Amino acid sequence: MSQIKVNSLASVASARSSETSSQGVGLEARSIHAWFGQKHVLSDISLDFYSGTVTALIGPSGCGKSTFIRILNRMHEFIPTAAMAGEVLLDGKDIYRSGVDVTKIRLGIGMVFQKPNPFPSMTIKENVLSGLKLAQIKINNSDELLEDCLVRAGLWSEVKDRLDQYGGTLSGGQQQRLCIARSLAVKPQVLLMDEPCSALDPGSTLRIEETIRELSENMTIVIVTHNMQQAARVSDYTGFFLSDGGPGQLIETAPTSQIFSNPKDKRTEDYVTGRFG
Amino acid sequence: MSTLIGNKPQQPLPDGAAIPKPIKPWKPTPKQLLPDLLGAITAVAASLIVVAVTPLAGGLGLLATFISISIVVASSISWIRQDRKAAANSVSTIVIYFLAAFVLLPVLSIIFEIIRKGAPGLSLGIFFNDMSVTSSDAPLNEGGLLHALVGSLYVVALATVVSIPIGLLTALYLTEVNGKAAGVVRFFVQAMSGVPSIVAGLFIYAVWMISFGGTYTTAAGSMALAILMIPTVARTAEEVLKLIPTDLREAGLALGATQWKTVALVVIPAARSGLITAVILGVARVAGETAPLLLTVGGNDAMNWNPFSGNNSALPFYIWKNFGLGTETAIARAWTGIFVLMVVVMIFFTLTRILGNKKGK
Amino acid sequence: MSITENPASTHVPKPREITTEPRFSDRVFRGVVSSGGFISLIVLGLISLFLLYNGFGVFRSEGLSFVTSFDWVPESIENGTEASYGIGAMLYGTLVISFIGLFFGFPLAFGTALFLSYYAPEWIKKPMVLVVDIMAAIPSIVFGVWGYFILMPHAEEWARLINKYLGFIPIFSMPGDFFTRSPFIAGLVLAIMIIPIITSISREVFAQTPLDRIQAAYALGATRWSMIRAVVIPYGKGGVIGGAMLGLGRALGETVAVYTVLNLVYDIRPEILLSAGGSVASLIVNKFGEANAPELKALMAAGFVLFVVTLLVNLIANMIINRTVRKG
């Protein structure tokens, strides 16, 4: 039974990774450790993320994958007790270097959250363009950008006649795609997605996965997911995180097809075949 | 490709291997704070110079200059180092820091002045004497405010006795009975906490003196204070009772206890320290009330041990009276009265803090 | 094959009504508690009833001019004056000083609430919250005496400066040289007194701002200020306005502190820096001591007007706050 599952996941994954070509490293994590207060939650994570690819981070809950992805665009520091060690390189430069403008970092590395969170006081249009307003970026062709982002997020045809309605009037899946469109408007190089489909129904999930695949052509995407089928469907590379009670560790990273068909580590195999987690 | 990414063996660090020290790279380093510090020094120096060479003078001129120069300096530093949005952020940060600092000023000034002007009149004697045989203009070491202290004690104690049952019943109605009218009652309790204190005094005057032909008494004053105290007690008690988990109530009911027994033996004991806090908050709220007492207790320079007959004084009344007399010693007495009143209020204030913290643990 | 087509289930049973016959002790308990709960309602009703009853004669004889006319003249046989009561000037004065209070108090309170919620480092935050709480606990007589002796000399200087540079604007003009005990100074004292309530309501409102929206803004490259403008303020606007109205209600009813620092004049003057103002609550304290019986009735009527105005402001404020903050 588990054998069948492995094979099917692996075949999905291999079909996926054969289409893509690596274009060099977009984002690099170097020996990342993380702490909350005295608690060591992530230990020595090094991982490269390639431009034009989707990297999925999988693992049981509590293994630190969400903490890790939040470190990648400096959202980690909003938790008062948080601390970290290591480096995250964007275009070869550490995003934690001293004197860096953190708001520019977050403009370059966008993030989509678990729960759709459009700004309720803004219309659909204002939501998409909110990043520009927040970062006080002025552009002339805002209508073009609006359409472009909504098209890329796969939402244009559904909302093009109601751009002046509030974001809260959309369904959950539409709201999440609105949030993706909102992230795209500031033209990030990297898009981080923290379990973007966990609050959505299966139909919306498939729709967002399609969007992710289309987007991955010209940006680096990192997605945290607890859904292995999703990882197999959308990602080119997969990293498996695990905590044995201590800090979370990166057990194995490999092309997704390899993780699902021929994992090197016994623990990865146990996890992807559903023996635990 | 797979060699690129799969080549890092991800083994747990062996025991004793060097785990790097946790750092918080987002905290600004001293070196990064240097421009801000220099900016602040520039702002101080520049404002001093501006005030010295221009007609702007005095503390106010200095302050205004300092604020404007700070804003200009900080926004230019941010603009040069980063961009326009960082400059806007700096301006708002500075404005908000100044606004918060301005709020500190009156409180610090009030505390400072109370000590400066109130302390000289303090002596053990004031706690043992009243003003029955002493003129307000007599030297400060004569007379005292014992009568006012006792009057305050009476008036507040009686108000508390009235407010506890009513406030508690209101809170119990809102949490335990939670009847159809709970929303309306909650709404009017909120409204009642906005009743101006002078109106409470006027109301008691209308009822007690006009309708029932009564005279000034301590009891009348405490009724007026109770009107102000009930909503505070009720609202705080409601908050406290809401925190008691529903399981606890259900556990009681499931054991076959009546609701009355459950509330009396389970809910109220569980909320005890919170309910005490509610009462003390109410006391702190009314201990310094002046306006309702002006209309109800009548004032007295001598002791009156009977709360149900005859005029009485109270600390706020004593302060009011001496302030109104306006002579130098009377005003000194008023400040000393303020000192004592503030100490009393602060004692209750501290008690609520201590009890509130204990509740949190 | 849906369930409704099944003939057997056309007789959907009606939910049984569960009736409980509470025990006697519980009925007593609920009765006592409920009647206790209604006491606030009863008290509010009694306040309006008694004040209205006592002031009714004045309302009838003065009519609308009670709230529009300016003169407050008790009947006097020696002087041969007929009674005439009007609180127009006092009502106007109350509004003026309350809005001056709000004008200065609101930005300070709003800024402090933002500071405490989003700017203050932990070590400043705690003492600062303590200071604001202490501020709320200071009795109004203390604000009054402090305002008279300590604030007034400074405020007089500020008033002179305002008059010097902005005197061409009618409200800042000055017919003589009377800068003490002005609506401006009373407004400043009120501003300080209403800061705690507005601050604490605003903080309560800000604390409800959904964290995921805040994070979304930061993830889009927002600075702290642009995040506050885009998320915190739109979300909390209603509650903060409600808090400001609660502060306004407090200012409208404040008595002792205003009385000590305001010179009551039975006239409507546009100049806020001039030593002439009005306040309904202060009028009551001022006239109460030497009032004869008919004048006392007029004071009751004035109290009724003050009660109704503050109650309305408070009800609206609480309605707004309840809608935005204390949902559910």
Automatic annotation (TrEMBL), chain A:
Q: Which GO terms describe its biological process?
A: phosphate ion transmembrane transport
From the Swiss-Prot or TrEMBL record, what is one GO molecular function term?
ATP hydrolysis activity
Stretches assigned to coiled coil = none
Q: Which UniProt keywords apply?
A: ATP-binding, Nucleotide-binding, Transport
Write out the GO cellular component annotations.
Answer: membrane
Q: Where is the signal peptide?
A: none
Keyword ATP-binding tagged: yes
The record's listing under Pfam families reads: ABC_tran (PF00005)
UniProt domain ABC transporter: residue ranges: 27-272
Task: Please name the InterPro entries in this protein's record.
Answer: AAA+_ATPase, ABC_transporter-like_ATP-bd, ABC_transporter-like_CS, P-loop_NTPase, PstB-like
Q: Which NCBIfam families match?
A: 3a0107s01c2
Question: What is this protein identified as?
Answer: Unannotated protein
Automatic annotation (TrEMBL), chain B:
Supply one GO BP term: phosphate ion transmembrane transport
What Gene3D superfamilies is this protein classified in? MetI-like (1.10.3720.10)
Write down the membrane topology.
Answer: Multi-pass membrane protein
TM segment ranges? 33-54, 60-80, 92-115, 153-175, 187-210, 216-234, 263-284, 330-351
Q: Which GO terms describe its cellular component?
A: plasma membrane
* One Gene Ontology MF term: phosphate transmembrane transporter activity
Locate the ABC transmembrane type-1 domain: which residues?
149-352
Tell me which InterPro entries the record gives. Answer: MetI-like, MetI-like_sf, Phosphate_PstA, Phosphate_transprt_permease
Q: Please provide the record's keywords in A-Z order.
A: Cell membrane, Membrane, Phosphate transport, Transmembrane, Transmembrane helix, Transport
Q: What is its main location?
A: membrane
Q: Does the keyword Cell cycle apply?
A: no
* Intracellular or extracellular location(s): Cell membrane
**One Pfam family, short name:** BPD_transp_1
Kindly give the CDD domains that the UniProt entry links to this protein: TM_PBP2
Which family is annotated? Belongs to the binding-protein-dependent transport system permease family. CysTW subfamily.
Official protein name in the record? Unannotated protein
Highest classification ranks of the organism = unclassified sequences, metagenomes, ecological metagenomes
Automatic annotation (TrEMBL), chain C:
Residues that span the membrane, as ranges = 32-53, 89-116, 128-151, 184-206, 227-248, 298-321
The membrane topology term of the UniProt record is: Multi-pass membrane protein
The protein, known as: Unannotated protein
The record's annotation in PANTHER family points to: PHOSPHATE TRANSPORT SYSTEM PERMEASE PROTEIN PST (PTHR30425), PHOSPHATE TRANSPORT SYSTEM PERMEASE PROTEIN PSTC (PTHR30425:SF1)
Gene Ontology cellular-component terms for this entry are:
plasma membrane
Question: Mainly localized where?
Answer: membrane
Q: What InterPro entries does the database record attribute to this sequence?
A: MetI-like, MetI-like_sf, Phosphate_PstC, Phosphate_Transport_Permease
Where it sits in the cell: the answer is: Cell membrane
The UniProt record lists the keyword Transmembrane: yes
Biological process (GO) annotations? phosphate ion transport
**Any one GO MF annotation of this record:** phosphate transmembrane transporter activity
The yes or no answer to whether the keyword Membrane is present is yes
SUPFAM superfamilies (alphabetical) = MetI-like (SSF161098)
| Annotated ABC transmembrane type-1 domain residues | 91-317
Q: Which organism is it from?
A: freshwater metagenome
Concerning its family, UniProt says: Belongs to the binding-protein-dependent transport system permease family. CysTW subfamily.
Keywords of this entry: Cell membrane, Membrane, Phosphate transport, Transmembrane, Transmembrane helix, Transport
A Pfam family: BPD_transp_1
